[in-house]
TrEMBL record:
This is DNA polymerase I. It is an enzyme of class 2 (transferase). 5'-3' exonuclease acting preferentially on double-stranded DNA. Gene3D superfamilies: 3.30.70.370, 5' to 3' exonuclease, C-terminal subdomain (1.10.150.20), 5'-nuclease (3.40.50.1010), Ribonuclease H-like superfamily/Ribonuclease H (3.30.420.10), Taq DNA Polymerase, Chain T, domain 4 (1.20.1060.10). Keywords: DNA damage, DNA repair, DNA replication, DNA-binding, DNA-directed DNA polymerase, Exonuclease, Hydrolase, Nuclease, Nucleotidyltransferase, Transferase. The gene is polA. Belongs to the DNA polymerase type-A family. It holds the Pfam family 5_3_exonuc.
Length: 895
């Protein structure tokens, strides 16, 4: 059977947009045209055509917002949020993409894409012998089109990982036949289309009714056989049920002109021109590899293969004074990674090694400080050498492309392929998944020729981008930020990762068992409370089952999305005893799965966890950690705080924590030149008490209440994050006018703050980005939006980023200086971790006095040291930085 692919263009484009937008990056051309959705759409469609060998492809779009369904229901789809601004121009660009590739698309006034697809599917089934249909969509309404010749391709994750639905799969998922999908929709409605269905009838009840009465019509013909509240709900919702069924029914009889199904013939030249026009260079080479799609390669200029030597062992006669080195490993956690290939390039050529085992010459090359090395992700590379028990000289690694690229644009995800998005290069590089496979299908044992060429190609990208990146850093006045802060920090983080943190396994086992028993106890209580509503198979950790229980079976009120997140549950906690138990169950489950049982897989043979400090993940310059995440164990939540007991110091050391006191407020005072704030900090007065005194107009001899201080604290920290009158009224449980009055009093008390905030927003709007004291930049596309909510978010970023980013840079300078001072003094004590504004050390008893003096001195002078590094010596740093110290044998004792 030949296959024809019918694509729901709107559905796929929306999904493509959100899949990439959630990563935090909106791909744009150099002149600002957004292309992220079209890029994902093009990538997915060409992949599908190649992998699944379709005879023909047709793409259908919605032509206008109003269709015949709006005549029947005026507010049809009215609840949907506005289309993101960056997506709007991409609807036209995606049509241009299809035209350039010679792929047919269609649209028709007054009809939706669903109707056009339904019509085409029925025409193929009835008039095209030997053909079957696959429909690519994320709209589950299309399930009604399933037949023995038509199946639905449903994206499970982003625009990849597709699930094929036929009649059997639909029966497993919804327990109804395709022709009764519209009956299901009639009863349960569809919030995304603003179809209400029968109020109080959810999916489970609807399926049960349809199993007995087959259709909506059958239910109402036998309404007397249904009793109690359900009968009442059905009677009240009868008109809605029939209307929703009618609207959900796809029209498969649309008049369509000149409908032909011919063998697909992708126009490669047109496609290449399109990709070049919209600067999607990384797609070009990928497309040329998809021979199922491309059949006209003779006119395409493909870059010549790189010439390189495959070596069995390294020979230092190939070494040079300056060398580029790329090390390949597929493991996400590089502490468990192994080297599967290595490439080196210098003035003598390109070289490839498939194995590094027992290579003494390579080790000599890595140890020799006369051989300087440039690489991508130094920390990962040297860790992989350590894993392979190969000695190296860390200081011979003098350039890190990953960190340099991050300084240039922190919005772009750290992958070597993304260097193309940092600097313009006339190179093309495949995605890893195309070479090694993805997920469970990933395979490092691939053809040697293919693997070596791919790794050498990555090396060429590293080499070619080197001068371009360094020149860009200098042109952007960010070279010092990279060279004197970010690059030295890599070594500090590497040493912290290698040291690791000791875990008390007995304490971990004790807490794990105790938490598990608490979870089981709560589940027993919930089963008693819910007798008659659930059976033994009910899973309290399933949001889907919880949603059906709370809103369908118990009939508790919900929002449109029927959310079961913490905030939603807290709003209905007083309505049923199970809700409070669910909240407690969820909290315990998170503790168990994330911080207790979840930690066990990260413990190495040395009884330590070796986290990965992510230096290039956040937009503000802050560090994060993963594998495991040790930065988000709350000290405010008593349950989570207990988990801090599992992190213990070594027998001959103690933990010491040094935490900057209110660093972001201090940075705000300095950068905003706010004299009143500077005076408060300069004379060591309590900022929250002083702010309360000013907000409430209280004299110096009047005592501030704890409530007044709490309100002032909300202001002091909230003001950095764009505190609004609405947000403040929610936080303090006061009226919006009262909140507005408080905000006015606050800004009257600190008059330069509003001027400073407005200047930050104005500057960011003019430049398109916000920048820190050290010239770390963050592009803020949201500021160009005409959507009030989006632009307001951009305003908050413009204010928050310079302050939070500067605070992060101060932390980094302190860490570098402390590390250098420890090394100079030959101290054995070391840094363990950094958590937001706090640095934790393990200090030997014999070194306590020296170590504490070094730490405190360097943390207090870090802002001034930062000014020297970024050549802002003329800026007088007036603000005093203060640190709080604590010590203990485990993290629990530190706070």
């Amino acid at each position: 059977m030949k296959k024809i692919l019918l694509v729901d263009g709107n559905s796929l484009l929306f999904r493509a947009y959100y899949a990439s937008a959630y990563s935090g990056v909106i791909l744009k051309t150099s002149n600002g045209i957004p292309t992220n959705a079209v890029y994902s759409f093009a990538n997915m469609l060409t992949s599908l055509v190649s992998d699944r060998d379709y005879h023909d492809v047709k793409v259908a779009f919605d032509k206008s917002k109003k269709t015949f369904r709006h005549d029947k229901l005026e507010n049809y789809k009215a609840g949907r949020s506005a289309t993101p601004e960056e997506l709007i121009p991409q609807f036209q660009i995606v049509r241009e993409f299809l035209d350039s590739a010679n792929i047919t698309w269609c649209e028709k006034e007054n009809y939706e894409a669903d109707d056009l697809i339904g019509t085409m599917a029925r025409i193929i089934e009835n008039h095209c012998n030997g053909f079957e249909v696959e429909i690519l969509t994320s709209d589950k309404d299309m399930f009604q089109l399933i037949t023995d010749k038509t199946k639905i391709l449903l994206p499970k994750l982003g625009t990849s990982d597709l699930e094929l639905f036929g009649e059997a799969e639909l029966m497993t998922k919804w327990e109804v036949a395709p022709k009764h999908v519209v009956d299901l929709k009639g009863l349960m409605g569809d919030p995304s289309d603003n179809l209400k269905g029968v109020e109080g009838v959810g999916k489970k009840t609807a399926i049960k009714l349809l199993k007995e009465f087959i259709t909506v019509e059958g239910i109402y013909e036998n309404i007397d056989a249904i009793s109690g509240k359900l009968q009442e709900k059905l009677i009240n919702g009868k008109e809605s049920a029939f209307l929703c069924k009618e609207i959900a029914t796809i029209n498969c009889d649309v008049e369509m002109e000149e409908l032909k199904f011919d063998r697909i013939n992708v126009n490669l030249n047109g496609l290449i021109n399109f990709l070049e026009k919209y600067e999607m260079v990384s797609l070009v080479k990928r497309l040329t590899n998809r021979v199922g799609v491309i059949n006209k390669l003779e006119d395409v200029k493909v870059k010549e293969k790189i010439k390189y030597q495959q070596l069995v062992k390294w020979d230092n006669s190939y070494a040079s004074e300056f060398n580029f080195i790329y090390v390949e490993s597929l493991e996400e956690n590089y502490h468990k990674g192994e080297i599967i290939g290595l490439a080196i390039a210098n003035e003598k050529g390109y070289f490839y090694l498939d194995t590094v085992k027992d290579d003494t010459e390579l080790e000599a090359f890595l140890i020799n400080s006369d051989f300087k090395k440039a690489t991508y992700d130094i920390k990962k590379v040297v860790t992989l050498f350590a894993n392979a028990q190969i000695n190296f000289n860390y200081d011979s690694f003098i350039y890190d492309a990953m960190v340099a690229a991050y300084v240039l644009n922190p919005n772009i995800t750290s992958r070597i392929q993304n260097l193309f998005n940092i600097v313009q290069m006339d190179l093309l590089l495949d995605e890893d998944e195309l070479v090694y496979g993805k997920g469970a299908k990933q395979n490092k044992e691939i053809d040697l020729e293919l693997k070596s060429l791919f790794i050498v190609s990555k090396l060429e990208v590293l080499k070619t981008s080197y001068d371009l990146i360094l020149n860009s850093l200098k042109e952007n006045e960010q070279f010092e930020l990279y060279q004197d802060i970010e690059l030295p920090l890599v070594k500090v983080l590497f040493e912290m990762e290698q040291k690791g943190i000791l875990i008390d396994k007995l304490e971990l086992d004790k807490q794990t068992a105790l938490t598990l028993s608490k979870i089981e106890e709560i589940e027993k209580k919930m089963r008693v409370v819910l007798t008659g509503y659930i059976d033994d198979s009910f899973n309290f950790a399933s949001p889907k089952q919880i949603k059906e229980l709370l809103f369908d079976q118990l009939g508790l009120p919900s929002n449109k999305k029927q959310s079961t997140d913490r905030e939603a549950l807290e709003r209905i906690v007083h309505l049923h005893p199970v809700v409070n138990l669910l909240l407690e169950h969820r909290k315990l489950n998170k503790l168990y799965s994330t911080y207790l049982r979840g930690f066990e897989k990260f413990i190495f043979s040395d009884h330590k966890v070796h986290t990965i400090f992510n230096q290039t993940l956040t937009n503000t310059g802050r560090l994060s950690s993963s594998e495991p995440n040790i930065q988000n164990i709350s000290v405010k939540d008593d349950l989570q705080k207990e988990a801090r007991k599992i992190f213990i110091s070594n027998p001959d050391t103690k933990f010491y924590s040094f935490d900057y006191s209110q660093i972001e407020l201090r940075v705000l005072a300095q950068l905003g030149h706010e004299d009143t704030l500077l005076s408060i900090f300069g004379s060591d007065r309590d900022i929250h008490t002083e702010a309360a005194r000013k907000i409430f107009n209280l004299a110096d001899d009047i005592e501030i209440t704890s409530d007044q201080r709490r309100i002032a604290k909300v202001f002091n920290f909230g003001i950095i994050y764009g505190l609004s009158d609405f947000g403040l009224s929610n936080d303090l449980k006061i009226s919006i006018p009262e909140a507005r009055q408080f905000i006015e009093e606050y800004y009257n008390s600190f008059p330069k703050l509003m001027l400073y905030k407005n200047s930050l927003i104005k500057e960011a709007m003019e430049k398109g980005y916000a920048s820190t004291f050290a010239n770390r930049k963050r592009i803020i596309n949201e500021l160009a939006s005409t959507n009030f909510m989006v632009k307001s978010f951009g305003n908050r970023i413009a204010v928050n980023m310079p302050i939070q980013g500067t605070a992060a840079d101060i932390l980094k300078v302190a860490m570098i200086n402390i590390s250098n001072a420890f090394a100079t003094q030959n101290l054995k004590s070391y840094m363990v971790t950094q958590i937001h504004d706090e640095i934790i050390f393990e200090i030997y008893e014999s070194e306590v006095q020296t170590a504490l003096e070094i730490i405190e001195a360097n943390m207090k002078t870090a802002f001034k040291d930062l000014a020297k590094i970024v050549k802002k010596d003329e800026t007088e740093i007036n603000i005093k930085l203060e640190v709080n110290e604590s010590k203990g044998n485990n993290w629990f004792e530190l706070k």
